[in-house]
Amino acid sequence: MPRRQQRPGWLWSEPTSGSKGRIGSELAASAVPDTPMSSAGKPSGTMWTPRTSSLLVVCCLFAVQVAGIFATSIPRHGFALGLAIFTAGSLFCLQLCVAWRGATGWSQRRRLGMLAALAALTYLPLAALGTTWPGMAGFLGGSILMLKPARTFRTWALFALVMASMLTAPLALGTSVRNATYLMIASSGSGLMVFAVYQLRLSFMRAHGESVQLSQLASVRERERFSRDLHDILGYSLSAITLKAELTRKLIDANPELVQDELAEVVDLARQAAADVRLIAGGYWSVSLAREAASAASLLSAACITPRVEIDCGALGDNIDAVLATVLREAVTNVLRHSTARHCAIEANQEDKMVTLTVVNDGVSRAMISSADGHGLRNLAWRMHSVGGELSTGIDGDGQFTLLAKVPTQDARARH
């Protein structure tokens, strides 16, 4: 059964994502369906959570109002004292309702109705008993700032009007200027404190939501990295093992001695693939362009494809070397899977702080290109982009397929 949608609130609401900026857009672009909530987003086990602290502050404000009721010169008969405590308690309960998470989704009519009820309870003791107590308009003033847009002039003007009434009304009832001023200041302080606690709670929710999003984004990126590495590694290794096994089956009767060598290579390929998978899981996998070029030449020859390999790019940084080696590995895998090639040229050179890798093979039709799975090429494009390079592919009318990868050297990247 789906969980009820969480709305931004104050005292009883769970933290939500809040921010709709850069982090949210990155997560929306990178996340996959049914992404689990990270455990990093769980609140800590301490009892002093912002929710509990907010509730404690509001309860203390209510306790101060109750103490003020008994400290003022309210007639000590049951009706007057009961009415004062009833109105103060009702204001406290309505304030909790306003702070409830659903209040942010209320309609304009419902918000105005709640403010009207708060105003009626606030001014009832003044009208019926002619009595006041410190902070009696605090909950009304705080609710005005919470239920109305606090950034508008009208909202603050209404808040100021309510606070001014705590000066003029007591003066009209015969209260001294000093006491009336104190009542107005106490109400203003209580209202601003209620609003400040509300804003602090929202700020915590937004910050907490951003930390959850960052944790989710890191988890998604790590899964994507693992998926890309696994695809690039196992795709090549399994293609090589399949090719060697088919060659061994053809040679098992004609050349038993060669079969032994091919089987030994199959075993080596399988062991290397297992070792690569372990390194991928640990995040330490790396390959070399020169080594991959030599391995590609051997594999293409076994597939009866004439290779031409020219690697003249000098020493490369580990990151660029690994990316270009991965590009070459995926390119050779595509040659074996998606073409009937007879020739394949692999060239790599460095010129003007730019390393260029070119893989050209024949035997590829446009129909084969359109039907081929593009997941591997998308992975390669992402890898090239991560090191500031670019990847392009194309096919001419003779079925000549060209993969071109260009990436700046580390010195060129450091200069920028």
The number of helical runs is 13
Strand segment count: 5
Poorly predicted ranges: 1-45, 411-416
Helix content: 55-70%
Largest sheet: 5 strands, mixed
Report the average pLDDT across residues: 75
Across the major sheet, the strand order is: 1-2-3-5-4
Structure in words:
64% of the residues lie in helices and 9% in strands. It has helices spanning 22-30, 50-71, 78-99, 108-128, 138-147, 153-172, 177-251, 256-282, 289-302, 318-338, 366-371, 375-386, 410-415, and strands spanning 306-312, 343-351, 354-361, 390-395, 401-408. It has 416 residues and is α+β, with helices and mostly antiparallel strands. It folds into two domains: 47-215, no CATH class; 288-416, 2-Layer Sandwich (Heat Shock Protein 90). The longest helix is centred in the middle third of the chain and has 75 residues, at 177-251. It has 13 helices and five strands. It is rod-shaped, with a radius of gyration of 36 Å. It has a five-stranded mixed β-sheet.
List the helices and strands and how they pair.
Elements: H1 22-30, H2 50-71, H3 78-99, H4 108-128, H5 138-147, H6 153-172, H7 177-251, H8 256-282, H9 289-302, E1 306-312, H10 318-338, E2 343-351, E3 354-361, H11 366-371, H12 375-386, E4 390-395, E5 401-408, H13 410-415
Parallel strand pairs: 1-2
Antiparallel strand pairs: 2-3, 3-5, 4-5
Helix pairs in contact: 1-7, 2-3, 2-7, 3-4, 3-5, 4-5, 5-6, 5-7, 6-7, 7-8, 7-10, 9-10, 10-12
Short description:
Helix content is 64%, strand content 9%.
